[in-house]
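User: I'm preparing a small set of examples for a lab meeting where we compare how different chains pack in three dimensions. I only have the primary sequence for this one, and I'd like the structure in C-alpha cell form so I can line it up with the others. Please keep the answer compact; I'll paste it straight into my notes.
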Amino acid sequence: MRMSTTGIDTWAVDLATIGPLYPFQGTEFFWVILGVVLWLAWHIWQIPFENREFEAEIEKYGDTETVQKAIDDGRSPPA
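Assistant: Understood. Below is the C-alpha cell output for the 79-residue chain.
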C-alpha cells in the first residue's frame, strides 16, 4: 500500500529533477476556490451581523441624528 501524498515512490533519485515536493500536488486550484468561497461567505455573514449590531446601538443611544449631534458636540450620547 502506498502511503505517500506526493508522486514520489522512492527517495533514491536526484531530487533536483523531481519538481515540487510538497504534499497534495495538483490540489492548489481546489484550495484557492475553497478560500475564495469561505472569504465571500464570511462577508455575506458579516454584513447582516454588523447591521444588527448597528441597529442595537441606534436603539440604545437614539436615532442617527442624536448620535451625530453627540459626535459633533464631543460628548457621549444619553444612555
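A couple of notes for your slides: The CA atoms of residues 61 and 79 lie 6 Å apart. The mean pLDDT is 81.

User: Perfect, thanks.
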